[in-house]
């Protein structure tokens, strides 16, 4: 998606040639016009799939998933919580995930009220790096019996091997911007 790649080239910051900071448009301050184009692109790429729900993980995936849902007939968005409050149903699906950027493990949860074996789910997330978050979501969906119709990623970092783990599960994976490497403060996209 050229619009996204251009935004990354002009606005992203690189740290230690391993972390790409896109908080000025993707996961802290949000560029809603860009998100609308991202939602349209996910709809184009998954138009042949029946989608009954979109699933993501808090926090950065929520806005992207919500805007994307508009293009799938406003299907519900369900997000896995990293921190369950006292008001969360105790009957949940759970999985462990490791956050690469936070260097921390989380126990993610989704209430059993919101996923059923009848659901056809599109997973949406901001990044694919090591694949831990997606494998956690995969586990939650497997526990629920829901069908995973596809996985939509905004930015993928191929040098962290997450794609291989997702493809081994046989999932249809679409990434809008695929980064091969971060070198000398520059983003090198897969062409």
Automatic annotation (TrEMBL):
Enzyme Commission no: 2.4.2.22
| Positions bound to xanthine | 27, 157
Q: Which CDD domains match?
A: PRTases_typeI
The Gene Ontology CC terms held by the record are: cytoplasm
**The UniProt record lists the keyword Cytoplasm:** yes
- Reaction catalysis annotation: XMP + diphosphate = xanthine + 5-phospho-alpha-D-ribose 1-diphosphate
GO BP annotation list: purine ribonucleoside salvage; xanthine metabolic process; XMP salvage
Question: Subcellular localization, per the record?
Answer: Cytoplasm
Q: Which InterPro entries match?
A: PRTase-like, PRTase_dom, Pur/Pyrimidine_PRTase, Xanthine_PRibTrfase
Which GO molecular function entries does the Swiss-Prot or TrEMBL record give? xanthine phosphoribosyltransferase activity
Concerning its family, UniProt says: Belongs to the purine/pyrimidine phosphoribosyltransferase family. Xpt subfamily.
Q: What does this protein do?
A: Converts the preformed base xanthine, a product of nucleic acid breakdown, to xanthosine 5'-monophosphate (XMP), so it can be reused for RNA or DNA synthesis.
Question: What's the protein called, per UniProt?
Answer: Xanthine phosphoribosyltransferase
Q: Which organism is it from?
A: Desulfosporosinus orientis (strain ATCC 19365 / DSM 765 / NCIMB 8382 / VKM B-1628 / Singapore I) (Desulfotomaculum orientis)
Quick one: which gene encodes this?
xpt
């Amino acid at each position: 998606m050229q619009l996204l790649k251009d935004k990354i080239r002009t606005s992203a910051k690189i740290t230690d040639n391993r972390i790409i900071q896109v908080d000025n448009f993707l996961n802290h301050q949000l560029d809603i016009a860009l998100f609308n184009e991202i939602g349209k692109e996910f709809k184009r790429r998954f138009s042949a799939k029946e989608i009954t729900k979109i699933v993501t993980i808090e926090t950065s995936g929520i806005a992207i998933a919500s805007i994307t849902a508009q293009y799938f007939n406003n299907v519900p968005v369900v997000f896995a919580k990293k921190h369950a409050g006292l008001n969360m149903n105790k009957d949940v699906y759970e999985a462990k995930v490791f956050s690469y950027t936070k260097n921390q493990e989380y126990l993610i949860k989704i209430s059993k009220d919101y996923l059923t074996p009848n659901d056809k789910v599109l997973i949406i997330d901001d990044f694919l790096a090591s694949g831990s978050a997606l494998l956690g979501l995969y586990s939650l969906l497997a526990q629920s019996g829901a069908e995973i119709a596809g996985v939509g990623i905004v930015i993928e970092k191929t040098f962290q091997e997450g794609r291989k783990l997702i493809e081994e599960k046989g999932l249809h994976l679409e990434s809008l911007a695929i980064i091969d490497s971060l070198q000398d403060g520059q983003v090198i996209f897969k062409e």
